[in-house]
Amino acid sequence: MYLGLDLGTSGLRAILVDEAGIVQGEAEASFDLAHPYPGWSEQDPAAWVTSCETAVAALRRHVPDAFARLRGIGLSGHMHGAILLDAGDRVLRPCILWNDTRSTAEAAALDATPGIREITGNIVFPGFTAPKLAWVRKHEPDLFEKVAKVLLPKDYLRLWLTGEHISDFSDSAGTAWLDVGARDWSDAALEAGGMRRDQMPSLVEGSAPGGTLRPALAEAWGLSQTVTVAGGAGDNAAAACGSGCLGEGTGFASLGTSGVLMAGRDSYSPDPASAVHSFCHAVPDRWYQMGVILAATDSLNWLSRNLGQSPSELARALPDAATGPSALTFLPYLSGERTPHNDSAIRGAFIGLDVSSDRTDLTRAVMEGVAFALRDSLLALKGTGARFDTLLATGGGARSRFWLTTLASVLDLPLSLPKGSELGAAMGAARLAICAADGADPNDVMTAPEAAEIIAPDPALRGAYEDAYQRYRALYPLLSGLG
């Protein structure tokens, strides 16, 4: 049996699978975020340990025989967080999370440092780890002097599980300290942020062993055999492992709180200026790239709050299939935008509001606007050489047929709807555990799910959506000029 642990921003998900990847048990536990000041987002790492204990206890209650045969654990987690430890592995302050924006000035300074984009393959965004430490160095200097190790969220959980300071390449690629092409810490990038190599964890591939379960924990959990803990992955790389997106031509479109268009790559082809993320994959000799928009289903949630109807009620008022673009255009820049604009100050808008516009028109425009924003990401990814044969559709927004058919026609790509529901980051973590514990080939383990349905673009709507997209694209510089 193999345990996949996915540490999310608001909770931990655990699934137990057998060697064929069939789920035998699952459990979840939640925890809170703290926002002590505007733009701050923090969490107590002790809550992650408690959630893991809770989830494991639930699995031991519900599937005791299966859990007793545990051989491997895989880890997935939200990226970019900064856990600061002293020489005794004591946490010095709450973890600064991926969605914390306090280090905007520090990120800009690091991004302007000669050579940093070339080393890391990415723009240095405020959410990345390196600018967080630069902020601590400036604003909490006494605490900064005590920092002996910096860990990413899932790797703090690993420290509790194994007692070791280890990370993987996919997660570490989001720190702005890693040479993403060479798959190693960069001394130059570390020095630019005032850090040292000895403050970093050691690095392994995500599908390789990354420690073993501590004997005390193994005994407490009723395990008699050695349990391997895999290197693991950042959440998007783990989701790619769970959905079989490893190499060229594979990818997924995620309509989650944020929107992600992910492409598997066989080689390293960064383009930082496009605001495309270029990261190491969780398996050897592979990379992945992402276009990221900050408000996908979050745009629908925003509309829901203001109209007093649930997102599902709003979605049900739309037809089952796209019929062509609306005269109303929505720009989903509610929290700024990543790809391709890298603009934290831009804000959203409705263009073309009419006295006859109703909530159905607004809902339709929101879904179309998100689809157009993901087409921005598609073009940015294609500019790096990425290609897509088809896209796996995932995330909560994929429950809307109107949204899926709109997205397929806007992207002019077929969308694959997978059979079954368990193909996310927790499954990817479990698959990494299988590889690490058994030495299995990731290409054999991380297969794509069987398609339940393929949603093809409607060729009759191609021209209309192309015209609407060009109108959408022309609006960004006009909005930007208002600031």
Automatic annotation (TrEMBL):
Domain Carbohydrate kinase FGGY C-terminal, first and last residues per copy: 253-436
Primary enzyme class: transferase
Catalytic activity line of the entry: D-xylulose + ATP = D-xylulose 5-phosphate + ADP + H(+)
Residues at which substrate binds: 79-80
Enzyme Commission number: 2.7.1.17
Keywords, alphabetical: ATP-binding, Carbohydrate metabolism, Kinase, Nucleotide-binding, Transferase, Xylose metabolism
Family: Belongs to the FGGY kinase family.
Function summary: Catalyzes the phosphorylation of D-xylulose to D-xylulose 5-phosphate.
HAMAP family reported in the protein's UniProt record: XylB
Name of the protein in its database record: Xylulose kinase
Organism: Pseudooceanicola atlanticus
